[in-house]
Specification:
Number of strands: 4
Shape: elongated
Strand content: 35-45%
Distance between the termini: 14 Å
Helix content: 25-40%
Order of helices and strands: EHEEHE
Radius of gyration: 14 Å
Strand order of the largest sheet: 2-3-1-4
């Protein structure tokens, strides 16, 4: 089994409160869940209203499929005009890696 993850560091646009931040991030996270069938959560920068970190994790039978899911997620996040994708950090491991 392969376990893959990606973290998106985001700079939000015209957002002035944590409530507005959530209203921007929630639809993107829901779209990621639908498009990738992966686990998605806000995983960082909870107290900053103009920054956000979204994490996505997936388990797959082969590394190629896991990478395809991460690629699809990255394209989806990068296409959103309401924020800037500052970075995307990835990881990929086999379940029996030490």
């Amino acid at each position: 089994m392969w376990i893959a993850w990606i973290e998106f560091d985001l700079l939000l646009g015209d957002v002035h409160s944590l409530k507005q931040k959530r209203s921007v991030l929630r639809p993107v996270m829901a779209e990621l869940r639908r498009a990738t069938e992966a686990s998605v959560a806000e995983v960082g920068e909870h107290d900053l209203h103009r920054r956000g970190v979204i994490g996505l994790g997936v388990a797959a039978g082969d590394a190629g499929h896991a990478n395809d899911v991460l690629d699809r997620a990255e394209r989806l996040v990068a296409a959103h005009p309401e924020f800037t994708l500052l970075s995307a950090r990835r990881g990929l491991r086999r379940s029996d890696d030490d």
